[in-house]
Design goal:
heterotrimer, A alpha+beta (338), B alpha+beta (342), C mainly alpha (180), A: 338 residues, alpha+beta, Nucleoside Triphosphate Pyrophosphohydrolase, eight-stranded mixed beta sheet, elongated, C: 180 residues, mainly alpha, 7 helices, 4 strands, Ribosomal_bL31m_N (chain C), Ribosomal_bL31m (chain C), Ribosomal protein bL31m N-terminal domain-containing protein (chain C), structural constituent of ribosome (chain C), Ribosomal_mL46_NUDIX (chain A)
Chain lengths: 338, 342, 180
């Protein structure tokens, strides 16, 4: 993508001013250095070329540990449940449409005298309308104004509508087929609630099909968080994230890392700076940069990892119950609502 | 001096604010609308808007069971005249100064009212929940903190627009408010036999395109002359077009991708060089491929033999470059093949 | 003057369309419609009801069992697809299951199997023959191999028979044969 080189150009222009401080991340600095050497000949060779090495050598060690985190998510598999208002609205619009659309052209779809035609006529007698999912409603009668559902009516429920469609297909198949002994069975759509939902199995990827699920791991101390490890030397953030993923959750997954840039970050500050006695370097805490990743197939496997106790696949509102409030306030804006 | 005083108060008050409170630990930081968004449902928010909503208020069972609007209306001794309860929109628009104005087209009593939407399309939901955020992450351009665009040298006149006679669309960095999305879909079919033979070709084409698109088509006369097909400009109606938006568009797209395209024999995908370099991708379907649509398949016999038209399908996206449009469409499930031209 | 030209332009485009008024354009077309006829026109404009074909809700079931509803002009309540993104190679390039799947769109193979069983299949005995050498470390190896060989030979004959029986229909099944 050209975005990478665009970003690099910006960083290069930033660094050329040699006012670089710890605000620019390591990979940006590296890119900058390379760009700078390349463009040095064309721009001001005297000024910019020596600037970069000086900066990188003179700068004190970065007082935070940089972590690469992975937000591994499973996108929603089914459509969401409709709100009661939406159900009522869509149903009402369908009945309005019954009155306002052109009438159904039966002769174009059913030849006169065929079994399908007879069956169609019989059904129209029953339900008074070509549509199966709006209940019994005649748009052209004198009481067509009575188009609102009564309390407790099931017609607006999507499950009921699908059931009516399937029943209609079944009865048509039975009425038009030659041998009357065999009954046609059309399989119903699968349930939107899976076994994992009923059991409350938080480790299954088949739970909460209409929500985005995120992989959370539990550390030995009992804290829940996204998988993350420190970035090693000479490693880009993306490489570190890929390594993190394979180290924590195993390789038995088909995943896709979305882009090269982090899409959220979290800062943890220690109460007191940890001072390394050997070098005198201070460590104020850790900064975690999260990369987005999608799981296509497979399942997480923590057996190879000894630092982590457990994992779970959780939706956004469940995550709020597991992680620390401080952590959640940092990550909540990068998680999808649905 | 007076201006300094608040800051002294503030300094005294600050440690108190940061002291651990006795209350149960709440989320730290500001209180945002996004804090509670996933746990709250739309129907909860309705309460705030309207205290007595028909969706939430309880009705006693006996009242609900005995309520029958039709019998109640029929049991009335004297019926109201229609004009008392039924508003009929004027049939003619007589200009802005006329006392009898037609209602707005969004009003169900208007003659121009179009009901809908009737469902929440699947492709739209996929786009909103998954594809949009992924595209935004993919197309992010990093700007380091402290970056300022280099200043324009003084006294230099503004540079003229780049490029030649045709000015391309300006591609801005993709942010939360300009993620590419599908804007509309145009199905267009040019039937040359409508000019060469008879008009039945255009009628069949119109019906076929209407069947697959859920829309009444528009017809067009030719603008240019094609001597070999004996088409003169402005004489013959030779083309039909349906322009899909909103719900129709999403349903058509889902049907096209999931059901129709996979059934095409030896189809490689959309050509990588397709596109008008401003984010609109076009591909064509042969007549036998159009016949694979479930709507045409269901009564294939009713179409006169060999008269089902081929068509061009243009996917208009809000992307400003073909690259972004292809990224979006391949995320929606349309494969591309061959040399990808940007 | 500019007013005049714009009016003429709308007058030129509208007759070329049919009576359809697009729902999305309703607000604009309404305002246009008032100035439609000519610059001096003062009479009323007919507000045409938009014409839209009747639409049904249809349940579409894909091959992997996932189902969704959509609005369509077709009166069939349920559409069961035989070929879709879930079992097509172009959408699942890494799926080993689909790499050598036989094409059976007309249901001919299925009908044949319902009548004569699966023993005529090309793939099942071949798998057995492949699996056999793995177990053949024992003394049974030779026996197994010989049986597999016999099976393979028989299978070749069957294929020939198959070819003969489907001689006339080969044009239809041509692509399927090639993949196998």
């Amino acid at each position: 993508m050209s975005s990478g080189s665009n970003g690099a150009r910006r960083i290069a222009s930033l660094l050329r001013s040699s006012k670089l401080d710890s605000g620019v991340c390591r990979s940006c600095q590296e890119t900058l250095g390379r760009r700078n050497y390349a463009s040095a000949a064309t721009t001001s060779a005297t000024e910019s070329t020596p600037a970069t090495p000086e900066v990188s050598s003179a700068a004190p060690p970065f007082p935070y540990t940089i972590n690469a985190g992975v937000v591994l998510s499973r996108p929603p598999q089914v459509t969401r449940d409709l709100e009661p208002f939406e159900k009522a609205f869509y149903f009402y619009q369908k009945r309005l449409n019954e009155r306002l659309a052109l009438p159904f052209t039966k002769y174009f779809y059913f030849k006169r005298g065929t079994p399908a035609d007879e069956d169609w006529k019989k059904k129209i007698q029953e339900r008074r309308t070509p549509a199966r999912d709006i209940g019994k409603y005649n748009a052209y009668a004198s009481d067509s104004w009575n188009d609102e559902l009564l309390l407790g009516a099931k017609e607006a429920e999507p499950e009921h509508q699908v059931e009516m469609l399937v029943q209609d297909a079944e009865s048509t198949a039975n009425a038009t087929s030659q041998d009357t002994s065999k009954k046609e069975e059309i399989p119903r759509p699968f349930s939107r609630v899976t076994e994992a939902d009923k059991k409350g199995d938080h480790k299954s990827l088949n739970r909460l099909l209409s929500r985005t699920l995120y992989l959370l791991v539990q550390s030995k101390e009992g804290y829940w968080k996204f998988p993350s490890t420190p970035v090693e030397a000479k490693e880009t953030l993306r490489e570190a994230a890929e390594r993190t993923l394979s180290q924590t959750a195993g390789v038995n997954m088909n995943t896709w890392m979305v882009g090269y840039h982090p899409f959220g970050h979290q800062v943890y500050k220690n109460r007191k700076a940890h001072v390394d006695k050997a070098t005198g370097a201070e460590n104020h805490g850790e900064k975690t940069f999260f990369l987005k990743s999608r799981i296509m197939a497979g399942q997480a496997d923590l057996s190879a990892n000894k630092d982590l106790k457990d994992f779970k696949w959780l939706s956004k509102d469940e995550i709020a119950k597991y992680v620390l409030p401080q952590y959640y306030s940092n990550i909540k804006n990068m998680l999808a609502d649905r | 001096m007076a201006a300094r005083e608040p800051s002294r108060h503030l300094a005294r008050a600050l440690p108190r604010a940061f002291a651990p409170s006795a209350r149960p630990q709440a989320f730290i930081g500001r209180r945002n609308a996004s804090d509670e968004a996933p746990t709250r449902r739309l129907s909860d928010q309705l309460d705030e808007l309207e205290s007595a909503s028909s969706l939430t208020s309880k009705v006693s069972d006996s009242a609900a069971k005995s309520f029958d609007p039709v019998t109640r209306a029929k049991s009335r001794r004297a019926q109201l005249p229609r004009s008392r309860y039924q508003f009929r929109s004027p049939k003619y628009d007589r200009g802005p100064l006329h006392p009898h104005q037609p209602p707005a087209p969004s009003d169900p009593s208007s003659r121009l009212f179009v009901p809908g939407p009737f469902s929440l399309p699947r492709t739209e939901q996929t786009y909103n929940s998954t594809i949009a955020s992924d595209i935004m992450t993919l197309c992010y351009v990093h700007t380091p903190p402290g970056f300022k665009p280099p200043p324009k040298p003084r006294n230099r006149p503004l540079r003229g627009p780049r490029g030649g006679d045709v000015l391309r669309l300006l591609r801005k960095p993709i942010r939360f408010n300009n993620i590419p999305k599908i804007e509309r879909i145009t199905i267009h079919s040019y039937v040359k036999q409508a000019a060469q033979e008879n008009s039945s070709w255009i009628h069949v084409a119109g019906i076929a395109i209407q069947a697959i698109s859920n829309m009444r088509v528009e017809t067009f006369k030719s603008k240019s002359s094609v001597a070999t097909w004996s088409i003169a400009p402005g004489r013959d109606t030779v083309a039909v077009k349906a322009e899909l938006q909103g719900e129709n568009m999403h349903h058509f797209l889902g049907k096209l991708i999931d059901v129709v395209l996979p059934r095409i024999k030896d189809w490689q995908g959309v050509k990588g060089s397709s596109g008008d370099s401003s984010g609109n991708i076009t591909f064509g379907l042969e007549p036998e491929q159009v016949a694979l649509f479930p709507e045409i398949e269901v009564n294939y016999d009713m179409y006169p033999p060999k008269m089902i038209p081929g068509c061009h399908i243009t996917l208009h996206t809000t992307a400003k470059a073909d690259k972004d449009a292809r990224l979006l469409l391949s995320a929606m499930g349309i494969p591309f093949y061959g040399k990808i031209v940007q | 003057m500019s007013m005049h030209t714009s009016l003429r332009r709308t007058a030129a485009t509208i007759p070329s369309t049919t009576t359809t008024i697009l729902p999305s354009r309703l607000p604009t077309s309404l305002s246009k419609a008032t100035t439609f006829i000519c610059s001096q026109c003062r009479h009323a404009t007919l507000l045409r009801r938009p014409k839209r074909p009747y639409t049904f809700t249809q349940l579409i079931t894909l091959t992997d069992g996932s189902a969704f509803t959509l609005r369509t002009t077709s009166p069939a309540p349920v559409y069961r697809s035989t070929r879709d993104t879930r079992n097509s190679l172009l959408w699942n390039p890494s799926s080993s299951k689909l790499m050598n799947v036989e094409e059976d769109e007309a249901g001919r193979l299925a009908a044949f199997r319902a009548r004569f069983g699966r023993s005529w299949d090309a793939s099942a005995p071949a798998e057995a023959a492949e699996a056999a050498p793995k177990d053949s470390a024992d003394a049974k190896a030779k026996e197994e191999a010989a049986r597999a060989q016999a099976q393979a030979e028989q299978e070749e004959e069957d294929n020939l028979l198959d070819l003969i029986s489907s001689f006339g229909q080969e044009e239809n099944q041509g692509s399927g044969k090639k993949k196998n």
